[in-house]
Amino acid sequence: MSDIVIQKLNKKQRDSIRWMYFGNYEITDISAKTGIEVDTLRFFIFGEDGTGKDPTSLYSIKKSMSSTAISCFLADKVSVLDQTCGIALNILNKSLSSLQYRVNEGEELSLDDMKKLSSIVVEMDKIVRLESGLATETIEHMGLTRAEAREVLANDPFAQAVEVEYIEVLPWLKK
What we know:
This protein is mainly α.
């Protein structure tokens, strides 16, 4: 049997593994998301003997917890992430308000500043769309009929009133 080398993990990595394992991620998925080798994950999750009988192993801890306790653990993590996002949004809001004041006072933005602002708008739009259950990426529609094009435009919350000229493509293919 070959010797298995176990990676040394920092606290952040261990927390990440714990959170994903308690969230019912498969070991291969955890490995793909974290970049940690499967053998190291098995060691951390099932303990040194690989059976999960070690009371400090994640397998043993998860087995001893009720599903409610695991849900509370995951909900607490989500709550911390929500707080962090709130703080980041407050900082962003203050910074953008300051920038708006400077622009109102006559300062002109550089091209780099405008690119950064537009990327913020794009990312915020993606978040809003994700929360609303809408597509987060723009999808190109080719070969639409008039009815399909009208439906796509009618369902797009950001569509503006535009004049659309329909061009018949390959009219000789019509029967």
